[in-house]
Amino acid sequence: MEKVKAGKKRKGAMTVAEAGRKGGLRVRDERGLGYYEEIGRMGGLKVRALIEAGRRALAQAGKRGKKGRK
């Protein structure tokens, strides 16, 4: 796991990538793979709601005669 470029010394105990991987594995072990499905679904629903809210706002602006951004 330890990759050091020639002539460079590592300052910390691990890289950001190593820390993220370690954290991800721990979450997987503690919560299970279903957790990722759940949070992915919640994120997708949030994005869908934001897109719909944006469309409604644009429709309302169009009814009031305001021009959208180009």
Explain how this protein is built.
The protein is mainly α. It has a domain at 34-70. The protein is built from two helices and no strands.
Number of strands: 0
Rounded to the nearest angstrom, the distance between the terminal CA atoms is: 48 Å
- Helical content (DSSP H or I, runs of 4+): 55-70%
Radius of gyration: 22 Å
Oligomer: single chain
Largest β-sheet summary: none
Detail the poorly predicted runs: none
Morphology call:
elongated
- The SSE order reads HH
Strand content: under 5%
Mean pLDDT: 85
> How many helices in DSSP terms?
2
- Helix-strand category: mainly alpha
Defining traits:
70 residues; mainly alpha; 67% helix; elongated
Summarize the entry for a quick read.
With 70 residues, the chain is an all-alpha fold. It has two helices and no strands.
Strand and helix layout:
Elements: H1 16-31, H2 33-63
